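FIELD: query
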Amino acid sequence: RRQRQMCIRYIIPDDLKYEISSKTGDKNGVENDTQLIRLSKGNFTFTVLSMGIPNSVYGTVTLAKCGKMMWDNVMNNWH
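FIELD: result
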């Protein structure tokens, strides 16, 4: 269960995770995660909703990859 609670922020550097608040939700075939990220460049909210996934491993990995893409975009392209 702990891994699911960290879906989007799973790949984000540990020293920055304390700036992230999250709300997860799941049931059979569904994994959802919303993050509020507080950074010096601003506050960001990011939500990923999924359905029809074969198992929670796919959901966790997909949410983590989406979180990494969002994190990289905010850190590299947002000024």
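FIELD: remark
The CA atoms of residues 8 and 65 lie 7 Å apart.
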